[in-house]
Prior knowledge:
Elements: H1 3-22, H2 34-46, E1 60-61, E2 64-65, H3 72-84, H4 88-132, H5 134-139, H6 146-165, H7 170-186, H8 190-206, H9 208-217, H10 219-243, H11 247-261, H12 275-282, H13 289-300, H14 306-326, H15 340-353, H16 360-389, H17 394-420, H18 425-447, H19 454-460, E3 469-473, H20 479-484, E4 489-491, H21 501-506, E5 527-532, E6 546-550, E7 554-558, E8 568-571, E9 575-580
Parallel strand pairs: 3-4, 3-5, 6-8
Antiparallel strand pairs: 1-2, 5-7, 6-7, 8-9
Amino acid sequence: xxxxxHQKCCVLIFVVASFLLLWKLDYAPFWNPDEGRYAAASMExxxxxxxxxxSWIIPHLNTLPRxxxxxxxxxxxxxxxxxxxxxTWSARLTSAIASIGIMALLWWLALAIWGKAQGHRKAFFIxxxxxxxxxxxxxxxxxxxxxxxxxxxxLMLIAIWRTAEDQPSWRAFAAAAIGLALALLAKGPVGLAxxxxxxxVWLIMVKKxxxxxxxxxxxxxxxLAFIAGIGLAxxxxxxxxxxxxxxxxxxxxxxNLGRFSGEKEYHDPSSPxxxxxxxxxxxxxWTLFLGTAAVNxxxxxxxxxxxxxxxxxxxIWALLIVFFFSASSTKLITYILPxxxxxxxxxxxxxxxxxxxxxxxxxxxxxxxxxxxxxxxxMLAAPYLKPILKLAPAATLQQALWGGGAILLLGAIGVWxxxxxxxxxxxxxxxxxxxxxxxxxxxxxxxxxYEDISAIFIRLRSQLLPEDQIVEIRTFxxxxxxxxxxxxxxxxxxxxxxxxxxxxxTSPLFAKPLSAVYTMPAQKxxxxxxxxxxxxxxxxxxxxxxxxxxNNDYALLSNRPAPAGWPIEFISPGKRSKIIPFPxxxx
Length: 587
């Protein structure tokens, strides 16, 4: 295949993968609490709630400043709200577009390492892995800060690698400076610490003398890029610190170092091996090629070539981030996302060079056929297994299994085609992975047993009057703010949303004692109360409150009777959109 055909394949996979990352971004309501926090705080930037003023400097959530994260995720999401309206899909554009940007950067790196002829061929597989691996694909469709941080660190690291390997140019140093600024605005000091650690270790491992030579020869360019990156991000930090003295010290020492050391901990302690299964599952269906990538690098590690140095850089990039967060007291699945572009690159490189041994295709087809047969049996038995195993509705399960069976069979055909006609390898492997990602969003909303209160408040929004009040007891679901477009009063719930503790304790919307519940029935205005079934406060059922709506986890009560057509009940996740009469959770 000549350069033009390889280039066309790259353009095709980039366009198709971009479509899949942007397709059906409203596959499910916002996931609580994190997506709800970012979505609601971004909405408050452009549409302030009663009692607050619009501010693009200090993000607010439920009218209180929320400064435990820098503002980039709020700025981008609020911008998309302005352009397209406040929708679930417009909020998730932030992560989806950042992911597409990462895919373009990996393509750029492949061309820089191998040139056009080889680079386009490898870039095809690299972009395919990034767009279809489970964790990158899933997090590309969830509103979070980590995809923005990953884009920023990827830009910075690739630009720095170009300055060290190629004839340095002002464009590469400018890209590194922009990446640094974006990283600081996306996540804070970790956006500087991680890339700096990776680059220093790589420069030392490549050649100790080169480490010193690099900084001596390019000292002014490096210094200028560093100052420019800090300078682009500094105005926001300084502006907030001017309005709120002590912010910088609190943000760096408490929000960042405190989380790493465990001084500030909102999550259960995790094993040092926490990220091993996350990595293996997160890179599915390409996980097995990790071994191939490691073996290929080990065999060629002593060769003084550009390609070997690039692979060393990528392994350092990938593994240092995993080790860094494995040492952290706070561990979340999303933290190692900045390592995954490097892993995707190494996997795509390994897949591009992979060739199956002779006759192994027979075993591959046999295994795929056996798995497909097992799935077929499970499909037939799904209606009978559902009540025993508490599975999703049978129709949803059958849909998933049919999709999985089709993917397995397509994979078996792909193995056969790759052996019989290697030129088909690109098309079949790509088709199998893309079919998986096409199916995944449709299933995600059905299989995820999350607390879906969105349907209740989407339905309630048309009934709300300006003077109505919404109260949450022993819970804080930020999506309520987004869907109801008004503040909520939170009763008997600790501060777990990154608020200043003094402001939280003195706010009329937070830190309300449980005794406040018992004054609600007598209020003149209408009050809606959201409470978990399993956490009903003592005596709440005896109050003259009326049932309006509910789902598996929550009940919505009010001090006024429900109108005609209510109460309603939403059963999630399988029957989220189906309204049924309320028979099961009577007062």
